[in-house]
Structure formats: structure tokens, C-alpha cells
Amino acid sequence: MQTFLKSRGRPVSDIKKDRITIRLSPEVTAYFRATGKGWQTRMDKVLQDYVATH
């Protein structure tokens, strides 16, 4: 009989991201948090778009 152990936490992603601490204005974090679940991913996308155009 095989026993399968369920791993804890998030699944491992092929895309590696840096874990950092950043200080943002309350207005910025309130805006993105108000957009719901996934707000950090959306913030990352906005920053990626900025980097690509500058």
C-alpha cells in the first residue's frame, strides 16, 4: 500500500521572485488591496510594465 503525503504551503513555481521589504504610501497599498485577492501580483505587473517602458 502506497501512502501519499500532502505537501504544505504553496506549490513551487518555475518563476523565482525576490523576497524584499518595501515601504509604500498608504494610498498605494489601499488602492491595490481594494482590487481583491492577487493584489501583489497586479502591483508586480504594473511595475514590470513601467520597467519595460522606461
Helical run tally: 2
- Stretches where pLDDT is under 50 for at least 5 consecutive residues are none
Strand count, sense and closure of the main sheet?
Answer: none
**Overall spatial form:** elongated
Main structural class: mainly alpha
Portion of residues within helices: 40-55%
* Assembly type: single chain
SSE order: HH
Radius of gyration over alpha carbons?
Answer: 17 Å
Give a count of the beta strands, DSSP E runs of length 2 or more: 0
Whole-Å distance between the termini? 58 Å
* Mean pLDDT across residues: 90
Which range does the strand content fall in? under 5%
Features:
54 residues
Task: Describe the overall structure.
The protein is mostly helical. The protein has a domain at 21-54. The chain has 2 helices and no strands. The chain is elongated and about 55 Å long.
